[in-house]
Amino acid sequence: MKKIAILTYHNALNYGAVFQAYALKEYLNRQEDVEARILNYGGEVAKTASKFFLFKYCIKHPSYILNLATRIKMMRKFREFRRVYLGVTKTRNNKIDVDFETYIVGSDQVWNPNINSMDRTYLLDFTNKEKYAYAASLGDFRDKRILKEYFKDNLEKFTAISLRENSSIDVIKEYYSGELITCLDPVFLLGMNEWINLYKKDIKENVNKYISEVTSGGYVLYFSLDLETEKLKATAVNFAKQKNLKIIFVTDNERRERYKDLLHFGVASPIELLYLMDNSSCIFTNSFHGTALSIILHKDFFVETNIGASNRITELLRNCGLEARGLQDGKFSGLFNEKDSDISWKKIDENIEEMLKESKEYLKKITG
Protein backbone atom coordinates (compact mmCIF):
# COMPACT_ATOMS: atom_id res chain seq x y z
CA MET A 1 0.00 0.00 0.00
CA LYS A 2 1.53 3.29 -1.12
CA LYS A 3 0.79 6.11 1.31
CA ILE A 4 0.46 9.51 -0.34
CA ALA A 5 0.00 12.88 1.36
CA ILE A 6 -1.68 15.82 -0.38
CA LEU A 7 -0.87 19.39 0.62
CA THR A 8 -3.33 21.98 -0.64
CA TYR A 9 -5.68 24.78 0.51
CA HIS A 10 -8.34 22.47 1.92
CA ASN A 11 -8.91 24.80 4.90
CA ALA A 12 -9.89 27.81 2.79
CA LEU A 13 -13.45 29.13 2.89
CA ASN A 14 -13.61 28.68 -0.84
CA TYR A 15 -15.79 26.26 -2.79
CA GLY A 16 -13.22 25.53 -5.48
CA ALA A 17 -10.53 24.84 -2.91
CA VAL A 18 -12.49 22.08 -1.19
CA PHE A 19 -13.84 20.63 -4.45
CA GLN A 20 -10.39 20.21 -6.00
CA ALA A 21 -8.99 18.79 -2.75
CA TYR A 22 -11.81 16.25 -2.58
CA ALA A 23 -11.42 15.26 -6.24
CA LEU A 24 -7.66 14.60 -6.08
CA LYS A 25 -7.93 12.63 -2.85
CA GLU A 26 -10.88 10.63 -4.16
CA TYR A 27 -9.23 9.83 -7.48
CA LEU A 28 -5.97 8.68 -5.89
CA ASN A 29 -7.77 6.44 -3.41
CA ARG A 30 -9.50 4.66 -6.28
CA GLN A 31 -6.16 3.51 -7.63
CA GLU A 32 -4.89 0.07 -6.69
CA ASP A 33 -2.88 -0.19 -3.47
CA VAL A 34 -3.00 3.55 -2.74
CA GLU A 35 -3.96 5.34 0.46
CA ALA A 36 -4.12 9.12 0.03
CA ARG A 37 -4.78 11.62 2.81
CA ILE A 38 -4.91 15.39 2.94
CA LEU A 39 -2.41 16.95 5.32
CA ASN A 40 -4.12 18.96 8.05
CA TYR A 41 -1.92 21.96 7.47
CA GLY A 42 -3.38 25.38 7.01
CA GLY A 43 -0.74 28.07 7.24
CA GLU A 44 -1.86 31.63 6.57
CA VAL A 45 -4.77 30.46 4.44
CA ALA A 46 -6.37 28.67 7.40
CA LYS A 47 -5.77 31.66 9.67
CA THR A 48 -7.82 33.94 7.43
CA ALA A 49 -10.66 31.39 7.60
CA SER A 50 -10.63 31.22 11.41
CA LYS A 51 -12.95 32.79 13.97
CA PHE A 52 -9.99 34.57 15.56
CA PHE A 53 -9.21 36.32 12.27
CA LEU A 54 -12.90 37.09 11.78
CA PHE A 55 -13.22 38.76 15.19
CA LYS A 56 -10.04 40.80 14.60
CA TYR A 57 -11.43 41.89 11.24
CA CYS A 58 -14.67 43.02 12.88
CA ILE A 59 -12.71 45.15 15.36
CA LYS A 60 -10.98 46.94 12.47
CA HIS A 61 -14.17 47.06 10.37
CA PRO A 62 -17.12 47.36 12.79
CA SER A 63 -19.71 47.42 10.01
CA TYR A 64 -18.79 43.81 9.16
CA ILE A 65 -20.32 42.70 12.48
CA LEU A 66 -23.63 42.61 10.61
CA ASN A 67 -22.19 39.68 8.60
CA LEU A 68 -20.67 37.85 11.55
CA ALA A 69 -23.45 35.29 11.90
CA THR A 70 -23.45 34.34 8.21
CA ARG A 71 -19.64 34.02 8.15
CA ILE A 72 -19.66 31.73 11.19
CA LYS A 73 -22.42 29.69 9.55
CA MET A 74 -20.25 29.31 6.46
CA MET A 75 -17.31 28.17 8.59
CA ARG A 76 -19.55 25.53 10.16
CA LYS A 77 -20.80 24.23 6.81
CA PHE A 78 -17.30 24.01 5.36
CA ARG A 79 -16.00 22.32 8.50
CA GLU A 80 -18.71 19.69 8.14
CA PHE A 81 -17.82 19.07 4.50
CA ARG A 82 -14.16 18.63 5.40
CA ARG A 83 -15.07 16.26 8.23
CA VAL A 84 -17.26 14.04 6.07
CA TYR A 85 -15.52 14.12 2.70
CA LEU A 86 -11.89 15.21 2.89
CA GLY A 87 -10.36 12.72 5.33
CA VAL A 88 -7.59 14.97 6.59
CA THR A 89 -4.81 13.75 8.87
CA LYS A 90 -5.27 14.20 12.61
CA THR A 91 -2.07 16.18 13.15
CA ARG A 92 -2.82 19.81 14.01
CA ASN A 93 -1.09 23.06 14.99
CA ASN A 94 0.67 23.11 11.61
CA LYS A 95 2.83 20.09 12.46
CA ILE A 96 3.44 17.98 9.38
CA ASP A 97 2.67 14.27 9.45
CA VAL A 98 5.77 12.54 8.04
CA ASP A 99 4.33 9.02 7.91
CA PHE A 100 4.04 8.97 4.10
CA GLU A 101 6.15 7.68 1.22
CA THR A 102 5.16 10.37 -1.26
CA TYR A 103 4.00 13.99 -1.06
CA ILE A 104 1.94 15.91 -3.61
CA VAL A 105 1.40 19.66 -3.49
CA GLY A 106 -1.56 20.97 -5.45
CA SER A 107 -3.75 21.80 -7.02
CA ASP A 108 -5.00 25.40 -6.66
CA GLN A 109 -2.81 28.51 -6.33
CA VAL A 110 -0.41 26.82 -3.90
CA TRP A 111 2.55 28.67 -5.41
CA ASN A 112 1.07 32.15 -5.35
CA PRO A 113 3.03 34.10 -2.69
CA ASN A 114 0.19 36.60 -2.40
CA ILE A 115 -1.99 33.81 -1.05
CA ASN A 116 0.43 31.62 0.93
CA SER A 117 2.48 34.53 2.35
CA MET A 118 5.76 32.99 1.10
CA ASP A 119 5.15 29.80 3.07
CA ARG A 120 7.71 27.30 1.76
CA THR A 121 5.82 24.42 3.31
CA TYR A 122 3.96 24.44 -0.02
CA LEU A 123 7.33 23.70 -1.63
CA LEU A 124 7.46 20.54 0.50
CA ASP A 125 10.70 21.73 2.09
CA PHE A 126 10.00 19.65 5.21
CA THR A 127 10.72 16.28 3.58
CA ASN A 128 13.37 14.51 1.53
CA LYS A 129 10.95 11.85 0.36
CA GLU A 130 9.39 11.71 -3.11
CA LYS A 131 7.68 15.01 -3.90
CA TYR A 132 5.50 16.02 -6.79
CA ALA A 133 3.41 19.00 -7.83
CA TYR A 134 0.04 18.28 -9.42
CA ALA A 135 -1.56 21.11 -11.42
CA ALA A 136 0.10 23.71 -9.20
CA SER A 137 -0.79 27.30 -10.00
CA LEU A 138 0.75 30.73 -9.47
CA GLY A 139 -2.47 32.49 -10.43
CA ASP A 140 -1.45 35.79 -12.03
CA PHE A 141 1.56 36.38 -9.75
CA ARG A 142 4.63 37.32 -11.83
CA ASP A 143 7.00 39.36 -9.62
CA LYS A 144 10.36 37.80 -10.58
CA ARG A 145 12.23 39.17 -7.58
CA ILE A 146 9.80 37.65 -5.10
CA LEU A 147 9.49 34.38 -7.03
CA LYS A 148 13.27 33.98 -7.09
CA GLU A 149 13.40 34.47 -3.33
CA TYR A 150 10.46 32.11 -2.79
CA PHE A 151 11.53 29.19 -4.95
CA LYS A 152 15.31 29.41 -4.50
CA ASP A 153 16.64 25.85 -4.91
CA ASN A 154 13.51 24.07 -3.67
CA LEU A 155 11.99 23.09 -7.01
CA GLU A 156 15.04 21.11 -8.15
CA LYS A 157 14.31 18.68 -5.31
CA PHE A 158 10.99 17.69 -6.88
CA THR A 159 10.74 14.34 -8.65
CA ALA A 160 8.33 15.87 -11.16
CA ILE A 161 6.24 19.02 -11.58
CA SER A 162 2.97 19.62 -13.40
CA LEU A 163 1.26 22.98 -13.61
CA ARG A 164 -2.36 23.94 -14.17
CA GLU A 165 -1.81 26.78 -16.63
CA ASN A 166 0.40 26.85 -19.71
CA SER A 167 1.20 30.46 -18.87
CA SER A 168 3.07 29.28 -15.75
CA ILE A 169 5.57 27.09 -17.62
CA ASP A 170 7.85 29.94 -18.74
CA VAL A 171 7.92 31.22 -15.16
CA ILE A 172 8.71 27.92 -13.44
CA LYS A 173 11.35 26.80 -15.94
CA GLU A 174 13.56 29.55 -14.53
CA TYR A 175 13.75 27.54 -11.30
CA TYR A 176 13.34 23.93 -12.47
CA SER A 177 15.45 22.13 -15.07
CA GLY A 178 13.22 19.07 -15.44
CA GLU A 179 10.33 18.56 -17.83
CA LEU A 180 7.26 20.67 -17.15
CA ILE A 181 3.77 19.67 -18.26
CA THR A 182 0.27 20.95 -17.64
CA CYS A 183 -2.47 18.86 -16.01
CA LEU A 184 -6.15 19.54 -15.68
CA ASP A 185 -7.55 20.80 -12.41
CA PRO A 186 -8.44 17.83 -10.16
CA VAL A 187 -12.19 18.46 -10.43
CA PHE A 188 -12.00 17.01 -13.97
CA LEU A 189 -10.67 13.72 -12.59
CA LEU A 190 -14.24 12.94 -11.51
CA GLY A 191 -17.04 12.68 -14.04
CA MET A 192 -20.51 14.20 -14.10
CA ASN A 193 -22.22 11.28 -12.39
CA GLU A 194 -19.66 11.22 -9.59
CA TRP A 195 -20.34 14.87 -8.74
CA ILE A 196 -24.10 14.40 -9.01
CA ASN A 197 -24.04 11.30 -6.79
CA LEU A 198 -22.00 13.25 -4.22
CA TYR A 199 -24.73 15.84 -3.69
CA LYS A 200 -27.68 13.48 -4.22
CA LYS A 201 -26.80 11.30 -1.25
CA ASP A 202 -26.24 14.27 1.04
CA ILE A 203 -29.27 16.26 -0.12
CA LYS A 204 -31.51 13.20 0.19
CA GLU A 205 -30.41 12.65 3.78
CA ASN A 206 -30.51 16.32 4.75
CA VAL A 207 -33.14 17.78 2.41
CA ASN A 208 -35.05 20.66 3.91
CA LYS A 209 -38.14 22.62 3.01
CA TYR A 210 -36.15 25.79 2.28
CA ILE A 211 -34.00 24.41 -0.54
CA SER A 212 -37.06 22.76 -2.10
CA GLU A 213 -39.01 26.04 -2.06
CA VAL A 214 -36.15 28.18 -3.34
CA THR A 215 -35.35 25.92 -6.28
CA SER A 216 -38.92 25.11 -7.36
CA GLY A 217 -39.42 26.06 -10.99
CA GLY A 218 -36.67 27.11 -13.37
CA TYR A 219 -33.94 29.50 -12.27
CA VAL A 220 -30.67 31.12 -13.27
CA LEU A 221 -27.88 30.66 -10.75
CA TYR A 222 -25.69 33.72 -10.23
CA PHE A 223 -22.61 32.32 -8.45
CA SER A 224 -20.16 35.11 -7.75
CA LEU A 225 -16.91 35.36 -5.86
CA ASP A 226 -16.71 38.33 -3.50
CA LEU A 227 -15.84 40.84 -6.19
CA GLU A 228 -17.53 43.94 -7.57
CA THR A 229 -19.58 42.41 -10.36
CA GLU A 230 -22.35 44.89 -11.15
CA LYS A 231 -22.00 44.39 -14.91
CA LEU A 232 -22.07 40.61 -14.63
CA LYS A 233 -25.07 40.85 -12.33
CA ALA A 234 -26.95 43.11 -14.73
CA THR A 235 -26.37 40.67 -17.60
CA ALA A 236 -27.52 37.72 -15.48
CA VAL A 237 -30.68 39.58 -14.41
CA ASN A 238 -31.54 40.57 -17.99
CA PHE A 239 -30.95 37.02 -19.20
CA ALA A 240 -33.25 35.62 -16.51
CA LYS A 241 -35.99 38.13 -17.39
CA GLN A 242 -35.79 37.24 -21.08
CA LYS A 243 -36.12 33.56 -20.24
CA ASN A 244 -38.87 34.22 -17.67
CA LEU A 245 -36.77 32.60 -14.94
CA LYS A 246 -36.06 33.70 -11.41
CA ILE A 247 -32.46 34.30 -10.36
CA ILE A 248 -30.77 32.86 -7.27
CA PHE A 249 -27.65 34.51 -5.88
CA VAL A 250 -24.87 32.59 -4.12
CA THR A 251 -21.51 34.01 -3.11
CA ASP A 252 -18.47 32.92 -1.10
CA ASN A 253 -18.99 35.89 1.24
CA GLU A 254 -22.71 36.32 1.85
CA ARG A 255 -23.73 39.86 2.74
CA ARG A 256 -27.43 40.66 2.68
CA GLU A 257 -26.86 44.37 2.14
CA ARG A 258 -25.41 43.66 -1.32
CA TYR A 259 -27.73 43.08 -4.26
CA LYS A 260 -30.95 43.46 -2.27
CA ASP A 261 -32.92 43.08 -5.50
CA LEU A 262 -31.75 39.46 -5.88
CA LEU A 263 -33.05 36.32 -4.21
CA HIS A 264 -30.22 35.34 -1.87
CA PHE A 265 -29.96 31.63 -1.22
CA GLY A 266 -27.95 32.45 1.87
CA VAL A 267 -24.92 30.52 3.04
CA ALA A 268 -24.61 27.45 0.82
CA SER A 269 -22.59 24.43 1.82
CA PRO A 270 -20.37 22.94 -0.91
CA ILE A 271 -22.96 20.19 -1.34
CA GLU A 272 -25.81 22.71 -1.64
CA LEU A 273 -23.86 24.65 -4.26
CA LEU A 274 -23.45 21.48 -6.33
CA TYR A 275 -27.21 20.93 -6.06
CA LEU A 276 -27.96 24.51 -7.10
CA MET A 277 -25.60 24.29 -10.07
CA ASP A 278 -26.86 20.98 -11.37
CA ASN A 279 -30.55 21.92 -11.12
CA SER A 280 -30.23 25.38 -12.65
CA SER A 281 -31.26 26.36 -16.18
CA CYS A 282 -28.16 28.50 -16.63
CA ILE A 283 -25.18 29.67 -14.57
CA PHE A 284 -23.51 33.09 -14.54
CA THR A 285 -20.22 33.16 -12.64
CA ASN A 286 -16.78 34.72 -12.27
CA SER A 287 -15.30 31.62 -10.64
CA PHE A 288 -12.78 29.27 -12.24
CA HIS A 289 -14.16 26.23 -10.44
CA GLY A 290 -17.70 27.45 -11.06
CA THR A 291 -16.79 27.36 -14.75
CA ALA A 292 -15.10 23.95 -14.51
CA LEU A 293 -18.07 22.36 -12.74
CA SER A 294 -20.52 23.97 -15.18
CA ILE A 295 -18.62 22.19 -17.96
CA ILE A 296 -18.50 18.88 -16.11
CA LEU A 297 -22.24 19.06 -15.33
CA HIS A 298 -23.09 20.07 -18.91
CA LYS A 299 -24.76 23.31 -17.84
CA ASP A 300 -25.52 26.32 -19.98
CA PHE A 301 -23.17 28.96 -18.53
CA PHE A 302 -21.39 32.28 -18.97
CA VAL A 303 -18.28 33.45 -17.14
CA GLU A 304 -16.84 36.93 -16.63
CA THR A 305 -13.22 36.97 -17.83
CA ASN A 306 -12.30 40.58 -17.03
CA ILE A 307 -11.12 39.78 -13.50
CA GLY A 308 -7.79 39.18 -11.75
CA ALA A 309 -6.08 35.87 -12.58
CA SER A 310 -8.41 35.45 -15.57
CA ASN A 311 -5.72 33.54 -17.49
CA ARG A 312 -6.82 30.29 -15.88
CA ILE A 313 -10.41 30.86 -17.03
CA THR A 314 -9.55 31.92 -20.57
CA GLU A 315 -7.15 28.96 -20.95
CA LEU A 316 -9.87 26.57 -19.80
CA LEU A 317 -12.42 28.05 -22.23
CA ARG A 318 -9.92 27.93 -25.09
CA ASN A 319 -8.86 24.35 -24.36
CA CYS A 320 -12.49 23.23 -24.31
CA GLY A 321 -13.50 25.25 -27.36
CA LEU A 322 -15.90 27.34 -25.29
CA GLU A 323 -14.54 30.83 -25.88
CA ALA A 324 -18.05 32.03 -26.78
CA ARG A 325 -19.07 31.51 -23.14
CA GLY A 326 -16.68 34.19 -21.91
CA LEU A 327 -18.00 37.65 -21.02
CA GLN A 328 -16.10 40.94 -21.02
CA ASP A 329 -17.50 43.42 -18.51
CA GLY A 330 -20.77 41.52 -18.66
CA LYS A 331 -20.97 41.73 -22.46
CA PHE A 332 -21.46 38.61 -24.56
CA SER A 333 -18.63 37.58 -26.83
CA GLY A 334 -18.90 38.28 -30.54
CA LEU A 335 -18.52 34.52 -30.93
CA PHE A 336 -21.82 33.91 -29.12
CA ASN A 337 -24.84 33.33 -31.33
CA GLU A 338 -28.04 33.00 -29.29
CA LYS A 339 -29.88 31.37 -32.21
CA ASP A 340 -27.27 28.64 -32.33
CA SER A 341 -26.24 28.57 -28.70
CA ASP A 342 -26.52 24.89 -27.79
CA ILE A 343 -23.22 23.50 -26.59
CA SER A 344 -21.98 20.35 -28.36
CA TRP A 345 -21.20 18.45 -25.16
CA LYS A 346 -20.04 15.32 -26.96
CA LYS A 347 -17.25 17.27 -28.62
CA ILE A 348 -16.39 19.07 -25.36
CA ASP A 349 -16.22 15.77 -23.47
CA GLU A 350 -13.91 14.35 -26.12
CA ASN A 351 -11.61 17.37 -25.75
CA ILE A 352 -11.53 16.98 -21.98
CA GLU A 353 -10.95 13.22 -22.15
CA GLU A 354 -7.99 13.81 -24.46
CA MET A 355 -6.52 16.39 -22.07
CA LEU A 356 -7.16 14.06 -19.12
CA LYS A 357 -4.93 11.36 -20.59
CA GLU A 358 -1.73 13.21 -19.73
CA SER A 359 -3.07 14.11 -16.26
CA LYS A 360 -3.88 10.49 -15.49
CA GLU A 361 -0.57 9.26 -16.90
CA TYR A 362 1.24 11.72 -14.66
CA LEU A 363 -0.65 10.49 -11.59
CA LYS A 364 0.02 6.90 -12.62
CA LYS A 365 3.75 7.59 -12.37
CA ILE A 366 3.18 8.74 -8.82
CA THR A 367 0.96 5.87 -7.70
CA GLY A 368 3.02 3.19 -9.46
Task: Report what the structure shows.
- With 368 residues, this protein is α/β, with parallel strands linked by helices.
- It folds into two domains: 2-187 and 355-367, Rossmann fold (3-Layer(aba) Sandwich), CATH 3.40.50; 191-336, Rossmann fold (3-Layer(aba) Sandwich), CATH 3.40.50.
- Helices cover 41% and strands 15% of the residues.
- The chain has 14 helices and 13 strands.
- The strands form two sheets. Strands 9-8-7-10-11-12-13 form a seven-stranded mixed sheet, sandwiched between helices. It has a six-stranded parallel sheet with strand order 2-1-3-4-5-6, with helices on one face.
- Strand 3 (102-105), helix 5 and strand 4 form a beta-alpha-beta unit.
- The radius of gyration is 20 Å and the shape is globular.
- The termini are close together.
CATH class of the largest domain: Alpha Beta
Estimate what percentage of residues fall within beta strands.
15-25%
CATH architecture label of the largest domain: 3-Layer(aba) Sandwich
Fraction of residues in helix = 40-55%
Would you tell me which CATH topology of the largest domain applies? Rossmann fold
Biggest sheet: strand arrangement? 9-8-7-10-11-12-13
Tell me the radius of gyration: 20 Å
- Major sheet characteristics: 7 strands, mixed
Distance N terminus to C terminus? 10 Å
Order of helices and strands: EHEHHHEHEHEHEHHEHEEHEHEHEEH
Mean pLDDT: 89
Low-confidence blocks of residues: none
Q: How many discrete structural domains?
A: 2
Task: Give the beta-strand count.
Answer: 13
Structural class: alpha/beta
